[in-house]
Design brief:
Elements lengths: L2 E8 L3 H8 L9 H5 L2 H10 L3 E6 L14 E4 L3 E2 L14 E2 L2 H13 L5 E3 L6 H11 L9 E6 L9 H16 L6 E7 L16 H13 L1 H5 L3 H8 L7 H9 L4 E9 L7 E8 L3
Helix pairs in contact: 1-5, 4-6, 6-10
């Protein structure tokens, strides 16, 4: 059967993608950030996952105010990088895994989670920046990717508890897939940041590191954080952290923290990163 073996949590700051694309990763401003991902790139190269499920949020490229799915699962064969207003990133087309994606859709929907099934869409920095951080700049991404877009842009976003339980449903779905596959789940976005109004530039390291601790050792407590606390403590865009809970739910019970990295700032954003491995069942 297929198996979820590990999870990756990472911020997906668009300026990170720009730094990679423009060859600025060794600049003094950026070097400490990228250095924290070097162990993770080696880890995932050694692991060689067969599929990555990437939980991210669309930034008004695939979806708009006209259609706002709470959870949207990509079931297509490929996904082109989106032009977000300054041209598409010079990264490979993302290849999907329709067979596993459709299996997840069927299993999760029959598990009473309502998903929007997407058969055609472009993917923006929310998905491609995490791939670049973990896989570098290859000619082709080393494994197929299943995108799972979560609405954290237009109120109301899903609760942390709903996201944690969706991850658990995805775990059940993957385990029922009748092929031997090693699957890694990415939870992306965050950490604390606000992009507008009087608190623009807000960063809260205390909240961020407490969230990292909870994600590893007490995901139920992390899932109980209400929307207003994310807003108050982590800024208006801090709500993206609920997507990390989808990843954590997909890992099941106890996990091993393989790597942790936290860096401030990256374009007025706190960058957090975890590599978590599933305990043997």
């Amino acid at each position: 059967m297929a198996k979820i073996v590990a999870g990756v949590a990472t911020s997906h700051v668009p300026a990170i993608g720009v730094a990679i694309d423009q060859g600025k990763t060794d600049d003094p401003y950026w070097k400490p950030l990228f250095a924290g991902f070097e162990p993770s790139r080696q880890w995932i190269a050694d692991l060689k996952p067969d599929v990555a499920i990437v939980v991210y949020n669309d930034h008004a490229t695939a979806f708009s105010m006209e259609v706002i799915p709470t959870f949207a699962l990509g079931c297509a064969a490929d996904y082109a990088p989106a032009d977000e207003g300054w041209g598409a990133r010079p990264v490979p087309v993302v290849k999907g895994h329709p067979e596993l994606a459709w299996h997840i859709a069927q299993s999760v929907i029959l598990d009473e989670f309502d998903l929007t099934i997407v058969n055609k869409m472009e993917v923006d920095h929310g998905l491609t920046v995490p791939l670049s951080l973990m896989f570098g700049q290859p000619d082709a991404w080393p494994c197929p990717v299943i995108p799972l877009a979560v609405n954290v842009v237009q109120y109301p976003p899903p609760t942390g508890n709903r996201c944690l339980n969706l991850g658990r449903a995805i775990r059940r779905a993957v385990q029922s897939f009748p092929r031997d596959l090693k699957v890694v789940v990415f939870g992306t976005g965050g950490m604390s940041h606000q992009l507008q109004a009087q608190r623009a530039g807000l960063i809260n390291p205390e909240f961020d590191n407490r969230f990292l601790d909870l994600l590893v050792s007490d995901p139920e407590a992390a899932a109980a954080i209400p929307h207003v606390e994310y807003l108050r403590e982590a800024g208006s865009e801090g709500i993206e952290l609920v997507m990390w809970l989808v990843m954590r739910g997909a890992l099941g019970g106890p996990v091993r923290q393989r790597h942790r990295h936290y860096h401030v700032p990256a374009s007025n954003t706190a960058v957090g990163h975890l590599v978590l491995e599933c305990e043997r069942e």
